[in-house]
Design a protein that fits this description.
Elements: E1 2-8, E2 12-18, H1 22-34, E3 38-49, H2 55-63, E4 67-68, E5 91-98, E6 104-107, E7 112-113, E8 118-119, E9 125-129, E10 134-144, E11 155-168, H3 177-181, E12 187-190, E13 193-196, H4 207-211, E14 217-232, H5 238-269
Antiparallel strand pairs: 1-2, 2-14, 3-10, 4-8, 5-7, 5-10, 6-9, 11-14, 12-13
Helix pairs in contact: 1-5
């Protein structure tokens, strides 16, 4: 297996993996989406709410605010409290706001943290209050996984895409229909040749193949070369999520190997 190139910016991470079986790359994708522990608000106790929103709506909005931190928290199921909730596996955040004027928007930056967990952004709107309206609550964040609830999914994008293959044969007469109709605009006519400008931009829709009057274009994909794209919600960086997923997969493989070896030894002794 070979990592051919890495392209990263503040929002997305693109990794092109060559020579890996599709199931391996997809396993990394599924682990990132479903098996990594990140913090999210799981319990909300509302002391006062005179806004127009129901308590349940506010609690749901709070739960979907991406949170950072929580490295020092225990996994609830493995905590000494057995998941009932304690300072070792939960972090408290407080919200106490009374509006001084109409149309006052309460943002996530008003959540005050007592522990190591805090909102990724201070500019996420929670609710709107008019003069005299008040919201007072305490919320408890805990670690969880995406398989349990979407609020614990650490990414907004996590997709695997095979490398597109666009073959142009000698039947092409440069009519330009495919250039005009391609929804991604990846084709161009240059120096009396039909060329592909950006192969990874191709969506494999096969519009160019279907409309070509000369059947000069064939679109397929390469299973041995894939691109993994991540976009974190902010709880962890893209690079951290990728490394965590690899570590998780290695650990699961070790556990499987130990289980198989234990079974074989048991059958041999029997």
């Amino acid at each position: 297996m070979e990592v051919e190139s890495i392209c990263s910016n503040n929002e997305q991470l693109h990794i092109i993996i060559k020579g890996a079986h599709p199931s391996f790359v997809n396993a990394i994708r599924r682990i990132i989406m479903a098996d990594l522990y990140i913090p999210a608000i799981d319990k909300v106790y509302i002391a006062e709410n005179t806004s127009v929103l129901y308590d349940e709506i506010i609690a749901h909005r709070l739960s979907m605010i991406p949170l950072k931190g929580g490295e020092n928290l225990n996994i609830p199921e493995k905590c000494s409290c057995k998941g009932k909730g304690c300072p070792l596996c939960e972090a408290a955040l407080f919200l106490d706001v009374e509006a001084k004027e109409d149309f006052s928007i309460v943002y996530s930056g008003r959540l005050k943290s007592e522990g190591s967990v805090y909102p990724v952004s201070n500019n996420i709107p929670i609710l709107k209050l008019n003069t005299g309206q008040k919201i007072s609550l305490v919320a408890y964040a805990r670690l969880g996984r995406g398989k349990d609830h979407a609020k614990w999914q650490p990414v907004s994008i996590c997709v695997v895409k095979y490398e597109p293959i666009v073959l142009i044969n000698e039947n092409c007469d440069l009519c330009g229909i495919c250039v005009e109709k391609c929804p991604k605009k990846i084709l161009e006519i240059k120096e009396n040749k039909l060329l592909v400008k950006s192969i990874w931009t191709c969506s494999l829709c096969k519009v160019c193949e279907e409309i070509c009057p000369k059947n000069a274009i064939k679109v397929s994909y390469n299973e041995k070369k894939a691109r993994l794209t991540l976009e974190t919600t902010g709880s962890r960086s893209n690079e951290e999520l990728l490394i965590m997923a690899c570590d998780y997969l290695v650990q699961k493989c070790k556990e499987l190997r130990e289980a198989i070896e234990s079974t074989i030894e048991g059958e041999s002794n029997g």
